[in-house]
Amino acid sequence: MSDVKELKALAYDLRKKVVNMVISGKGGHIGGDMSVMDALVALYFKEMNISPENREDPNRDRFVMSKGHSVEAYYAVLAQKGFFPMDEVIEQFSKFGSPYIGHPNNKLPGIEMNPGSLGHGLPVCVGMALAGKMDQRNYRVYTVMGDGELAGGSVWEGAMSAGHYKPDNLCAVVDRSAGLPLDGMC
Fold it and tell me: Is the pTM of this model over 0.70?
């Protein structure tokens, strides 16, 4: 899928799934979900080499959702990509005992790490990118950060490390909570 119109239509449809998920779970961060959806759809359906079929491949691309409170959008995209059933996510989101909790859960297929405090995505991704270079792998590492976490010290430590080591396999996207265009990313 590469046509911008198709990607926009998919993002629109997935936003509806997110609303259903939030209603089913009786809570969520819907504003952040809506703003990050275009970026996630563009990354997962146009840019990144990530799929259920290659999830164990050491050369697959890596993705970290630093903006972990927008997990509903992330789950919707992963479900659409085929990592787990969409109906299951909507039905079980934020329910007692469910793996579909309010922040990314790396016990689920397709999720590389559980983001903790905001701001940890970029420094972790710098480390993943550098590890890929050291292991002579050809994968790329992506993160989506919220604009609110950019003031965190760990973000700037990660940015300074990236500036120093210059990993050319790293892509950091900032969601400015106003939506991003589906073209011109990374």
Answer: yes
